[in-house]
């Protein structure tokens, strides 16, 4: 049975639940050259920028695969630059198991 949708319902169903930053990780998996693996801490795959062999961001797109990767807060050194940070994979699934 067809029914009409009210304007209020149409506006509510189009609303976003919120915006939030995504932690996107690019890991060089090659010990000698560049073999980048692209991951995002999200529940779905997303497209993002690709890196070239020298590590510069390019205008082309790359698919970042969903993975539960957590990171510590960024620390900075005396110059104000980011020193290091630690990432962890709390629950390694089959997708990540082949890389480890």
Structure description:
The chain has one domain. The protein has 2 helices and 6 strands, in the order αββββββα. The strands form 2 sheets. Strands 1-2-4-3 form a 4-stranded mixed beta sheet, with no helix packed on it. The chain has a two-stranded antiparallel sheet with strand order 5-6. Strand 1 and strand 2 form a beta hairpin. The relative contact order is 0.15. Helices cover 11% and strands 30% of the residues. The protein is mainly beta and 100 residues long. The longest helix is centred in the N-terminal third of the chain and has 7 residues.
Q: What's the average pLDDT?
A: 80
Main sheet properties: 4 strands, mixed
| Oligomeric state of this protein | single chain
Low-confidence stretches: none
Helix content: 10-25%
Number of helices: 2
Spatially, the strands of the biggest sheet line up as 1-2-4-3
Secondary-structure-derived class: mainly beta
Residue share in β-strands: 25-35%
Instruction: Find the count of extended strands (DSSP E, 2+ residues).
Output: 6
Terminal-residue CA separation: 54 Å
Number of domains: 1
Q: How do the helices and strands follow one another from N- to C-terminus?
A: HEEEEEEH
Shape: elongated
How many whole angstroms does the radius of gyration measure? 19 Å
Quick tags:
single chain; 100 residues; two-stranded antiparallel ribbon
Please describe the topology of this protein.
Layout (H helix, E strand, L loop, with lengths): L6 H7 L10 E5 L7 E5 L5 E6 L5 E10 L3 E2 L15 E2 L5 H4 L3
Parallel strand pairs: 2-4
Antiparallel strand pairs: 1-2, 3-4, 5-6
């Amino acid at each position: 049975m067809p029914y009409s949708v009210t304007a209020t319902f149409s506006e509510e169903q189009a609303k976003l639940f919120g915006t939030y930053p995504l932690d996107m990780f690019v890991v060089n998996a090659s010990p000698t050259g560049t073999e980048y693996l692209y991951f995002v801490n999200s529940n779905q795959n997303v497209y993002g920028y690709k890196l070239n062999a020298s590590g510069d961001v390019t205008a082309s797109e790359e698919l970042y695969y969903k993975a539960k990767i957590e990171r510590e807060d960024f620390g900075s050194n005396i110059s104000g630059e980011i020193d290091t940070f630690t990432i962890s994979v709390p629950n390694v699934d089959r997708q990540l198991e082949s890389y480890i």
